[in-house]
Write a structure and sequence with these properties.
The chain has five helices and nine strands; from the N terminus they run E-E-E-E-H-E-E-E-H-H-H-E-E-H. The protein is of the alpha+beta class and about 230 residues long. The chain has two domains: about 140 residues, Nucleoside Triphosphate Pyrophosphohydrolase; about 70 residues, Winged helix-like DNA-binding domain superfamily/Winged helix DNA-binding domain (Arc Repressor Mutant, subunit A, Orthogonal Bundle). Strands 1, 2, 3, 4, 5, 6 and 7 form a seven-stranded mixed sheet that branches. Strands 8-9 form a two-stranded antiparallel sheet. The chain is elongated, with a radius of gyration of 20 Å.
Length: about 230
Amino acid sequence: MDKLEDYKRPSVAVDIVVFTIMHGRLKVLLIKRGREPFKDLWCLPGGFVRIDESPENAALRELKEETGIKDLYLEQLYTFGKPERDPRGRVISIAYFALVDSTKIKPAVTGEEGIKKIGWFDVDFLPDLAFDHKEIITYALKRLRYKLEYTAVGFELLPDKFTLTDLQKLYETILGEKLDKRNFRKKAMAMGIVEKTREQRKGSHRPALLYTFRKKASSSAFKQVKFEK
């Protein structure tokens, strides 16, 4: 029988891709490294998994310590384990992606050692990134777009009450394409995933009716309709 001590032990880390919608653009949260390796390059929030914690708890802890973010949607994404991905040694990273409504949470540096700066970056205009974090973000974006078409995950990026215009802009921002307004609204209502409230959003234009997500909506509803350009 093989013995555990016969094998060298790699380190296990977590990296978290945090998405939000800000100023009509899909953004990802990055931190600027204050130490080697890759000092002064931007990277994803994350760190090493402690011996007494699960990867998910490690991801939540690192987010809170490095960015001040807590209480958000978090989902395991993929495991990245190329032998050369970290110059310090053999590190296997369990990646997660998270979604947050930017109106509810404003991350701030908490004084965590090794962090110089923190900020939101447009997914289409990323800076040079440390490690394999560009690959991780690309994979997370692909997963997000895929899940948008068959789950309610996109509603994590919206406030509790929103207009149908807000909802359409959300889909357009994530999918990166323009959708037909009349068709979108008709199909959004046909899916039965939103319901009207008695409230309106007032502004410089005509008051807009506010909606909420129907939490009891079945996942099959998202498979019934394909939004068209």
